[in-house]
């Protein structure tokens, strides 16, 4: 079962959802943060969420910054925020270990509980290089940060482009909703039926990649575009350009979800989650999160952009300057 329940989702919109204006950026940030922390750490308490929310925002601001670690710089604020995140997560780890010991927590309830149990077993077998709570806190902080940066971006750009979509998307989602009883959550079979919805999501990710690129090291000498790249050189690719290559994506500036029908684009031409052995391990989580999010919005609301030509800044990922305000208009009859 999924986290797509009406009650939990509507809670993020507030109690008055008859007609409301929502700034998509802060809304999606809050939603994806709470979801990621809930799944990774099992944190549901609002106070604990607040302890983590602010430093995560500050840490994200220091990721792409001049690495000068002096007071007042963005990099310095990011370093301090990262230390605060690890401090809070260390406290959560200590409490979870106690809960596991006295039986009030389930070892399989979330990633943190599973990690504590598995790390404990590993440390018993390998005593010369034990994994510390600090190691776990750092690993969880990195995982949460990656999820949050990419998935917040997914939600923002989905709304930005969805305002221009044909009505095929609502029809597909409504067909699934008709087969659900009141309060019934989505399951894997439902997600598999959302083929057009995922095509839409992929086209958004093609036109608005969730990352500014990635670094790779050349394993051998090769020639590309008339340039010789020696073995050992580090390369940086920009999906904003590679995913708009006319050779693989005809008329690349056109929003066309049909590109992903059938076999879809050629291998390694569409890489929102990377590719090969280094593909992002959270790609299936992202797919489920995006589709569940789309389902809950599309089956309940129509929407209108409040600022049709809102400017976008890069900081460090694309961000609408006014937060992408939209008006949500509920359907006359909810599914």
Q: How would you describe what is shown here?
A:
Keywords: Heme, Iron, Membrane, Metal-binding, Monooxygenase, Oxidoreductase, Transmembrane, Transmembrane helix. The protein is mainly alpha-helical and 335 residues long. It has one domain: Orthogonal Bundle (Cytochrome p450), CATH 1.10.630.10. It has helices at residues 6-13, 24-41, 46-61, 74-102, 111-125, 133-162, 168-178, 188-193, 195-207, 239-242, 283-298; strands at residues 20-23, 214-217, 222-224, 227-229, 234-237, 301-305, 312-314, 318-320, 325-330. The strands form 4 sheets. It has a 3-stranded antiparallel β-sheet. Strands 2-5 form a two-stranded antiparallel sheet. A two-stranded antiparallel sheet has the order 3-4. Residues 1-8 have low confidence and may be disordered.
- The CATH H-level superfamily is Cytochrome P450
**Terminus-to-terminus distance:** 18 Å
Q: Pick out the low-confidence regions.
A: 1-8
* Percent in strands: 5-15%
Structural class: mainly alpha
Order of strands side by side in the largest beta sheet? Answer: 1-9-6
Tell me the number of structural domains: 1
Q: What Rg is obtained from the alpha carbons, in whole angstroms? A: 22 Å
Largest sheet: 3 strands, antiparallel
The count of β-strands is 9
CATH topology value = Cytochrome p450
Family: Belongs to the cytochrome P450 family.
InterPro entries: Cyt_P450, Cyt_P450_CS, Cyt_P450_E_grp-I, Cyt_P450_sf
Subcellular location: Membrane
Keywords: Heme, Iron, Membrane, Metal-binding, Monooxygenase, Oxidoreductase, Transmembrane, Transmembrane helix
């Amino acid at each position: 079962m999924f986290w797509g329940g009406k009650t939990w989702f509507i809670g993020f919109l507030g109690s008055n959802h008859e007609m409301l204006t929502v700034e998509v950026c802060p809304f999606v940030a809050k939603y994806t943060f709470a979801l990621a922390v809930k799944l990774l750490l099992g944190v549901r308490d609002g106070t604990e969420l607040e302890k983590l929310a602010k430093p995560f925002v500050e840490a994200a601001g220091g990721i792409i910054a001049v690495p000068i670690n002096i007071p007042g710089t963005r990099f310095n604020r990011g370093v301090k925020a990262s230390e605060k995140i690890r401090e809070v997560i260390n406290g959560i780890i200590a409490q979870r270990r106690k809960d596991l010991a006295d039986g009030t927590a389930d070892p399989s309830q979330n990633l943190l509980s599973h990690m504590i149990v598995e790390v404990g077993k590993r440390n018993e077998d390998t005593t010369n290089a034990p994994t510390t709570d600090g190691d776990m806190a750092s690993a969880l902080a990195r995982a949460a940060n990656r999820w949050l940066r990419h998935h917040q971006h997914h939600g923002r750009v989905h709304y930005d482009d969805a305002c221009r979509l044909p009505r095929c998307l609502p029809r597909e989602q409504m067909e699934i909703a008709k087969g659900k009883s009141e309060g019934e959550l989505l399951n894997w079979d439902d997600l598999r039926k959302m083929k057009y919805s995922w095509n839409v999501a992929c086209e958004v990710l093609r036109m608005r990649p969730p990352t500014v690129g990635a670094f790779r090291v050349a394993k051998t000498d090769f020639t590309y575009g008339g340039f010789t790249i020696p073995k050992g050189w580090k390369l940086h690719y920009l999906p904003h350009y590679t995913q708009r290559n006319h050779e693989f994506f005809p008329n690349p500036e056109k929003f066309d979800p049909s590109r992903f029908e059938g076999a879809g684009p050629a291998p390694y031409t569409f890489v929102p989650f990377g590719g090969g052995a280094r593909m992002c391990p959270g790609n299936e989580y992202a797919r489920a999160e995006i589709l569940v999010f789309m389902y809950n919005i599309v089956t309940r609301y129509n929407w209108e952009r409040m600022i049709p030509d809102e400017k976008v800044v890069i900081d460090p990922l694309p961000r609408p300057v006014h937060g992408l305000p939209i008006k949500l208009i509920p359907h006359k009859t909810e599914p």
